[in-house]
């Protein structure tokens, strides 16, 4: 099948890292077209606020009946998490909590390395696919754009029409919590029909990162594999989409999204055009396509030097299901409100020197007091 026939949709989370959340704000971009590039759908909201009810409706939970604070997953997030939340949490949970608690009218400038990283991700994506602008009119439309981009990647792997798939949306449930993310690259080996995940990391110097950074990166890429493999197992999280994101899976998708799906024959292989298109139908297609695919074989981190945008080191991460489960259980205990937020341990106090919240960090205050008390007892 001709790749260009697939059409494409992409949404605003293309720029990675912190910009993952941008899909809720449905930013717009139009990319230049090339004849060989695949297309991705990109959502544009008719009214910007249309995209927000996903969060709004969940954050307005009334907790006035008891004094118990809402767990962070509700007070800081909309009842669901992003893969990048876990990698940041593995660096410093307290830092992540501060960053999510910053009032909306306070802007913390984006570090230069984040901007560089975002530009690189966009450039890499545009090497293999284009953008198609889609107008979204509901939360269901916004999530449908994500599902369509995933579906395009899955079907293109199945037909082996392309070996490299970038910025692939992924979602699933881990320990009862709905998680969203975006995989930098899924690489298909056409001879063995095996799949690898590659995560791009930009570096200021041509040196591998230290142990602490590698742990955050390993968490992220292992979680991508876990979510992808769960789809291959047929675990499509319909219940979470209905309950957590409050999406109506049977609601007819908007005109623009529907038109784009119909014009890209590969998204749905047989559909009566007189019948309304729904998220439920798209999820059926995801399940069917994913179940025909193999599990992810290998995981790689591709380190790219900022100066020339060239890769200087490709490192394999060995998947360790038990290690990942342990980390997820520990991280989720915080999100579910089962334990207090923690800052870094004393041996990682060097992280505080470059932290934006160093001067007002309560964790440091508490640890300093504990240290003084311990000294006084000696
Ligand atoms: S100052 Fe240290 S403990 Fe506090 S948030 Fe920053 S990195 Fe974490």
Automatic annotation (TrEMBL):
Residues 43-63 have a biased composition (Basic and acidic residues). It comes from the Eukaryota. It comes from Cherax quadricarinatus. Belongs to the EXO5 family. This is Exonuclease V. Residues 28-63 are annotated as: Disordered. GO terms for cellular component: nucleus. GO terms for biological process: interstrand cross-link repair. The lineage of its organism: Eukaryota, Metazoa, Ecdysozoa, Arthropoda, Crustacea. One of its GO terms (molecular function) is single-stranded DNA 5'-3' DNA exonuclease activity. InterPro entries: EXOV, PDDEXK-like_dom_sf. It holds the Pfam family Exo5.
């Amino acid at each position: 099948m001709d790749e260009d026939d697939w059409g494409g949709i992409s949404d605003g989370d293309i720029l990675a890292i912190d910009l993952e959340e941008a899909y809720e704000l449905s930013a717009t971009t139009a990319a230049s077209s090339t004849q060989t590039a695949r297309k991705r759908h990109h959502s544009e909201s008719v009214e910007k606020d249309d995209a927000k009810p996903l969060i709004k409706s969940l954050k307005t939970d009334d907790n006035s009946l008891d004094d118990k604070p809402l767990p962070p997953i509700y007070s800081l997030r909309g009842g669901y998490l992003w893969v990048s939340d876990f990698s940041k949490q593995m660096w410093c949970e307290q830092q992540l909590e501060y960053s999510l608690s910053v009032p909306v009218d306070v802007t913390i400038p984006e570090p230069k390395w984040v901007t560089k990283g975002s530009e690189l991700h966009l450039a890499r994506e545009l090497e293999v696919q284009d953008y198609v602008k889609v107008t979204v009119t509901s939360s269901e439309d916004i999530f449908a754009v994500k599902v369509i981009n995933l579906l395009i990647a899955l079907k293109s792997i199945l037909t082996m029409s392309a070996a490299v798939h970038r910025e692939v949306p992924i979602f699933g449930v881990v320990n009862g919590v709905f998680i969203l993310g975006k995989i930098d690259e899924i690489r298909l080996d056409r001879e063995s029909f095996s799949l690898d995940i590659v995560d791009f990391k930009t570096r200021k110097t041509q040196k591998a990162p230290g142990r602490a950074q590698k742990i955050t990166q390993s968490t992220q890429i292992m979680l991508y594999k876990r979510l992808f493999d769960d789809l291959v197992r047929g675990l499509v999280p319909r219940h979470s989409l209905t309950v957590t994101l409050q999406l109506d899976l049977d609601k007819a998708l908007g005109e623009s999204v529907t038109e784009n799906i119909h014009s890209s024959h590969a998204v749905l292989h047989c559909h009566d055009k007189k019948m309304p298109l729904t998220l439920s139908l798209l999820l059926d297609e995801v399940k069917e396509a994913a179940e025909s695919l193999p599990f992810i074989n290998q995981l790689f981190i591709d380190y790219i030097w900022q100066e020339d945008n060239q890769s200087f080191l490709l490192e394999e991460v060995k998947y360790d299901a038990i290690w990942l489960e342990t980390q997820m259980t520990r991280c989720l205990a915080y999100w579910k409100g089962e334990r207090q937020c923690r800052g870094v341990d004393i041996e990682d106090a060097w992280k505080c020197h470059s932290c934006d919240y160093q001067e007002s960090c309560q964790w440091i205050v508490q640890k300093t007091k504990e240290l003084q008390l311990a000294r006084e007892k000696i």
